[in-house]
């Protein structure tokens, strides 16, 4: 019975009428597109499974990179492995913090003030210090950003080099000619699976990395990205998929460069990188992406191959990414506006930054950079804006 149910589920999931254009079957894509021994083949669903061990390998490489390359670089730049100010030991406040609330309201603060004979501001400061002492150090954030900067820059340069000689880079209609009977080259395969493995590693490490306010948005982003890469690979939309991947990689390394400059306290360099990132992000995500990528997936493909069920799913995921692009672009524009008003990059609207400095109590209206190393915000936006961390305090 179980075997029959599994077979029925398998047949339902791999329904050819969902995945493939009309009059195309999986058997048509099972053979070699070239002469025998050519080594060419069409994408197969089983290929994406190789992304999982590769994702673990990428995560292991990241740990080694952060320990033996990023950390020494940070120390040479004067970034110390020192955490925020630790809260004064207090059993009563610790019990409230761990068992009741990490952010007590006014009524509870008044009660604690009477019980401990402390003024309310001192208790508020204690809770702020206690929250911050669990947050990562600047050294940790520098190492994370340096890893992402290195990967994003490397994969972007590889993608540009690969696509420069690809005909569909210059004429997007080439993505759909003779579709889906387009052979998979080894370079295209490695580019695609490496990107998929990296996003799987981000999905897993998101639960251990620096926590940010946009955790849910980034989770949706990673799911949509993994879904896009996987679905486009299984039904051989890899040509247009490479364009989407390269376009998204174009701005990510600039964001990480801005964060690296901030952690090293090069504020002007940080501001310059962030402004450059903002320009590239908005141009690529609000300009090139809808008018180049969505144009070919929605209109040119409709003209050349016509819609079918997985075509709608693929475009639905692409449109989901566009919605996220609009949200992140709005946040970037807010930061840029504050930078023009205040004279430097201001707080981002995405991380769970919470200042640990006591001077905030006295100067709550002061202008303080979002990347300020006295704050304990950390992608990602990884990402993207996906890895950024300029956000308002909670």
From TrEMBL:
InterPro entries: HD (IPR001356), Homeodomain-like_sf (IPR009057), Lag1/Lac1-like (IPR016439), TLC-dom (IPR006634). Coiled coil: none annotated. Residues 140-341 form the TLC domain. It is a multi-pass membrane protein. It catalyses: sphinganine + octadecanoyl-CoA = N-(octadecanoyl)-sphinganine + CoA + H(+). SMART domains: TLC (SM00724). Its main location: endoplasmic reticulum. The keyword Plastid does not apply. Residues 95-138 bind DNA. Residues 93-137 form the Homeobox domain. This is Ceramide synthase 5. CDD domains: homeodomain (cd00086). Pathway: Lipid metabolism; sphingolipid metabolism; Sphingolipid metabolism. Residues 347-394 are annotated as: Disordered. SUPFAM superfamilies: Homeodomain-like (SSF46689). It holds the Pfam family Homeodomain. It is found in: Endoplasmic reticulum membrane; Nucleus. Residues 367-381 have a biased composition (Polar residues). Keywords: DNA-binding, Endoplasmic reticulum, Homeobox, Lipid metabolism, Membrane, Nucleus, Transferase, Transmembrane, Transmembrane helix. The chain crosses the membrane at residues 149-169, 189-208, 215-234, 273-292, 312-337.
């Amino acid at each position: 019975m179980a075997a029959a149910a599994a077979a029925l589920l398998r047949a339902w999931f791999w329904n050819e009428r969902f995945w493939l254009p009309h009059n195309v079957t999986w058997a048509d894509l099972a053979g070699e597109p070239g002469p025998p021994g050519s080594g060419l083949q069409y994408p197969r669903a089983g290929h994406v499974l190789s992304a999982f061990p590769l994702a673990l390998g990428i995560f292991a490489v990241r740990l080694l990179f952060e320990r033996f390359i990023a950390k020494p670089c940070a120390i040479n730049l004067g970034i110390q492995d020192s955490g925020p100010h630790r809260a004064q030991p207090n059993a009563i406040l610790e019990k409230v913090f761990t068992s009741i609330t990490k952010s007590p309201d006014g009524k509870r603060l008044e009660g604690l003030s009477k019980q401990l004979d402390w003024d309310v501001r001192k208790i508020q400061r204690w809770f702020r210090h206690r929250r911050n002492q669990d947050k990562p150090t600047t050294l940790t954030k520098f190492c994370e950003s340096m890893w992402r900067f290195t990967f994003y820059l490397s994969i972007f340069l590889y993608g540009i080099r690969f696509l420069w000689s690809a005909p569909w880079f210059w004429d997007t209609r080439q993505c759909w000619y003779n579709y889906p009977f387009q052979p998979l080259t080894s370079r295209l395969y490695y580019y695609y699976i490496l990107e998929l493995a990296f996003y799987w590693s981000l999905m897993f490490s998101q639960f251990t990395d620096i926590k940010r306010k946009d955790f849910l948005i980034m989770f949706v982003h990673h799911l949509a990205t993994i879904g896009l890469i996987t679905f486009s690979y299984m039904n051989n939309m890899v040509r247009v998929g490479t364009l989407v991947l390269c376009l998204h990689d174009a701005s990510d390394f600039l964001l990480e460069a801005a964060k690296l400059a901030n952690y090293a306290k090069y504020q002007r360099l940080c501001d310059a990188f962030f402004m450059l990132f903002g320009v590239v992000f908005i141009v690529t995500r609000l300009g090139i992406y809808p008018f180049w990528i969505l144009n070919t997936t929605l209109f040119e493909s409709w003209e050349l191959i016509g819609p079918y069920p997985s075509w709608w799913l693929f475009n639905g995921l692409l449109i989901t990414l566009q919605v996220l692009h609009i949200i992140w672009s709005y946040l970037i524009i807010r930061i840029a506006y504050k930078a023009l008003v205040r004279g430097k990059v201001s707080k981002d609207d995405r991380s769970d930054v919470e200042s640990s400095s006591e001077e905030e109590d006295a100067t709550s209206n002061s202008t303080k950079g979002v990347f300020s190393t006295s704050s304990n915000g950390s992608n990602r936006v990884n990402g993207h804006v996906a890895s950024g961390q300029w956000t308002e305090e909670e």
